[in-house]
Amino acid sequence: MSALRIALIASARHPIRQPFPGGLEAHTWQLARQLHSRGHQVQVFGGPGSDASLGVRELPVRVPISDHARRDVSMPPESFLSEHHAYLALMLELADDGDRYDVVHNNSLHYLPVAMAPSLAMPLVTTLHTPPTPWLESAVQARPGSSSPVRFAAVSRYTAAQWSGSVPGATVVRNGVDTAFWTPGPGGGSPVWSGRLVPEKGTEHAVRAARRAGTGLRLAGPISDPAYFRERIEPLLGDDIHYVGHLDHAELVELVGSASVAVVSPCWDEPYGLVVAEALACGTPVAGYARGALPELLDDSCGVLAAPGDVGGLAAAIVRAARLHRAAARRRAERVCSVEAMVLGYERLYRDLVA
Q1: N or C: which end of the chain has fewer CB within 10 A?
Q2: What is the pLDDT of residues 148-157, one digit of tens each?
C-alpha cells in the first residue's frame, strides 16, 4: 500500500511532548508516531516546545501586529488573537502548497481549519474531540455542503451523536493506546486517578469516594487549575491520599499498572476518556461515573459504573471493581482501544478521500 503525505494539525496552545498537558496532545503524539512507523510522510504543525523527534513545524503564535492596532478598543485577548493568527497563517500556507500533501488531518479544536478547508487543493479530515463548541459548530454550519472536501471523524459513538445535528454521519474512530507500551502491571496497590486536575474531571469526587471506600488514592496529572487544586484538593490530601505529580508515560505505566483500580470521575460528558484505555491496557479495572463515552468503552468484565455525581455509588464501584480480573481488562483494551485499530481507521479515511 503506497505511502501518503499527511499534514497533521495539532494544538497551537500546548506543546506535543511528555508529560502531556492532556489527552489531545497524547493522542496527537501517538498518531504521528504510528503513521510514520507505517511508512507515511507526516508533517506535524504544533505548539512551540514540542517533541523534537516528531519534526514539528512550530505554529507562528507570536502576533506581528503594530502598537497602533493593539490600541484599538476592540482588541481581543492576546491568547485568542495568537491562536487565530497561527491557524490563519498555516491554512494560507497549505492553500499555497497544493501539491505538497495528499491529505490534511486537523487534530486541533480551532475553527479556522474547518472554515478555510474549501481553499485547499487537498481534502481535510477533522477529528471531533469534544462536544459541540460555538466557534467550531459555526464553522461547520457555514461551510459549503457535500462538495466541501471535509470529512469528520468522532472519537466515540457518543461524541458522534452529540454532533449529529450539524455533522450527520461522522465516522467513529476511537482513540487508541499502544498496548505494547501500556503493559499489564501486578495491581494490588491503592487506586489511582490520573488526568488534568480541573473541576470538570471530578478529582474531588474521586478523593471523597476513595475515603468512603477506605482504599486510599494516588493522584497524578498536571495542575491545570491552580486555584482549584489549592482550594479544593490540597485540603483533602494526607493519610492515604497522595498527589504524586505530573508523570511522563513510562512513570504512568508503572503507576497505573500497580493500582488495584483506576478511578475515573468526570463531571462533564467525557467525549472519550483516554485514561480509561490506558488503565485497561495496564490490566487495571475501572470504577467511574456513567457519563459520556465511558459506558461505551467498558463492560461488566472490566469496569463498574456509578450514577453521575453519586460519590457513595463511586465508592461502592471502587470496592467492586477491585474484584474484577485484570486479564479481562487487558483483553478489553486489545479489542476496543488499540492504537492499531485507530491508525487503520484513519488510513481508511485518508485513502477514501484521496481516491
Answers
A1: C
A2: 568 999 999 9
